[in-house]
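Sequence design from tokenized structure. All designs in this work follow the same two-part layout: the structure record, then the generated sequence. An example of the structure record is given first.
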């Protein structure tokens, strides 16, 4: 079944449900009609970028591309013009949909050199590329249908719910796990295209009776600090993803939203993106775990010797299934590097307990080896976040004449770096105590509210 036929069939089960942003509003049925009327305007296009100021407009443009069976490349203005230009140069689409004048318009790019892949994707989702050339992850219609169907099977939202989508659909987790999943489940959708603003999001949740919300641990822990001022009683479902989350942060979020079902999920763009989820019934007991694999996804954790790890033994996580990407656009060498016998190497260090629950410890390329010890920034960050004075923290590595060292940036209620170091000494083993500490007013975040992991 073609992806658009699948989506249209599911959407039209609930034609009266609403997609909205601010005062703009369309029913599901009107969105389908609009997409199919716009699709013929894309005739002859090989690949279409989407760059809209409004996330609702971007979502409608995406549906039009899917209806036209044309690969779509979502972009986000929240990441700035330079970042968008990098993606356009990497993929080189021959058309772009924008909403500069409030109307969606197509601009053809006459000097495009887009190369049609052997198997044409439905989406090319670009990884962040903030420090280098973006990687174009090619996702097929089958990849998307598999992942959306699996997400819909456990995500207990429905016709009586309204989801607030506050992050750009540039993110696969938002596009698949929020927008398309909500369409398939018949859930009303409200978009927010504003800047990162946790208190404002809480006000919107209360104002519009939002029942479902997804975000990063950083965003939700900040919302937890503000929630008593706004008390969003309507909220029933929370989905957490995008960063490693400590047990304490998870429990802090749960305490702030005691009436909510909380899902802790894990994925990566190459897996469309969802790999695993923790059922809400287990969240209070295992908040730092990302749960069990989706029904169509197989996982294994492999040690340095290439052997499958035993329970609670850490190694690299590999995944396999119909949700796994076709490959990287025009980069067969990089594609081959991460595939082995049909398995995709995530590059994430993980372990699985005796109940089959997965815990992500951090990126293998973020790992710091100091004095022979493996140190994961997320572990240090999780430990220091237990201190109520710490609002945000970023741990990174750097080198000096003494070798690999640990650096830390902290947003919090401290008067000096020495005070932070004293706190670290109380909460961390000696080999994890940072060599350099910097107090900052805020940490840089991307358009999805995820802390940008750079020095």
């Amino acid at each position: 079944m073609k992806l658009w036929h699948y989506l249209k069939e599911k959407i039209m089960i609930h034609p009266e449900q609403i997609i909205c942003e601010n005062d703009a509003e369309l029913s599901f049925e009107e969105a389908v009609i609009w997409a199919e009327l716009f699709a013929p305007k894309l005739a002859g296009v090989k690949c279409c970028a989407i760059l809209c100021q409004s996330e609702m407009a971007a979502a409608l443009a995406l549906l039009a591309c899917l209806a036209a069976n044309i690969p779509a490349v979502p972009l986000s203005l929240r990441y700035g013009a330079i970042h968008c230009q990098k993606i356009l140069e990497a993929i080189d689409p021959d058309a772009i949909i924008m909403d500069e004048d409030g109307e969606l318009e197509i601009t053809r790019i006459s000097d495009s050199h887009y190369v049609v892949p052997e198997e044409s994707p439905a989406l090319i989702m670009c990884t962040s590329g903030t420090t280098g050339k973006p990687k174009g992850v090619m996702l097929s219609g089958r990849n998307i249908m598999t992942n959306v169907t699996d997400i819909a099977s456990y995500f207990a939202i429905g016709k009586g719910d309204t989801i607030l989508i506050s992050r750009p659909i540039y993110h696969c987790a938002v596009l698949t796990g929020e927008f398309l999943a909500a369409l398939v489940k018949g859930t009303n959708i409200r978009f927010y295209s504003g800047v990162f603003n946790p208190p404002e999001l809480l006000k919107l949740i209360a104002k519009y009776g939002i029942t479902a919300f997804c975000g990063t641990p950083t965003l939700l822990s900040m919302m937890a600090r503000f929630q008593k001022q706004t008390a969003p009683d309507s909220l029933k479902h929370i989905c957490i993803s995008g960063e490693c989350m400590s047990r304490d942060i998870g429990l802090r979020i749960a305490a702030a939203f005691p009436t909510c079902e909380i899902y802790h999920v894990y994925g990566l763009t190459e897996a469309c993106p969802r790999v695993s989820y923790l059922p809400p019934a287990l969240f209070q007991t295992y908040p730092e775990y990302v749960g069990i694999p989706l029904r169509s996804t197989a996982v294994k954790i492999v040690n340095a010797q290439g052997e499958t790890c035993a329970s609670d033994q850490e190694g690299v996580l590999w995944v396999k299934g119909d949700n796994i990407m076709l490959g990287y656009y025009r980069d067969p060498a990089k594609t081959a590097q991460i595939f082995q016998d049909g398995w995709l190497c995530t590059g994430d260090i993980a372990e699985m307990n005796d109940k089959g629950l997965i815990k992500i410890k951090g990126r293998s390329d973020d790992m710091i080896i100091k004095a022979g010890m493996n140190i994961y920034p997320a572990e240090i960050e999780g430990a220091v976040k237990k201190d109520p004075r710490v609002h945000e923290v970023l741990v990174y590595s750097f080198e000096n004449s003494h070798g690999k060292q640990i650096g830390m940036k902290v947003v919090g209620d401290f008067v000096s770096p020495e005070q932070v170091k004293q706190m670290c000494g109380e909460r961390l083993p000696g080999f994890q105590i940072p060599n350099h500490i910097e107090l900052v007013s805020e940490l840089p975040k991307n358009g999805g509210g995820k802390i940008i992991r750079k020095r």
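The domain at 1-365 is CATH 3.40.50.12780 (Rossmann fold). We note this feature because it recurs in several other targets discussed in the main text.
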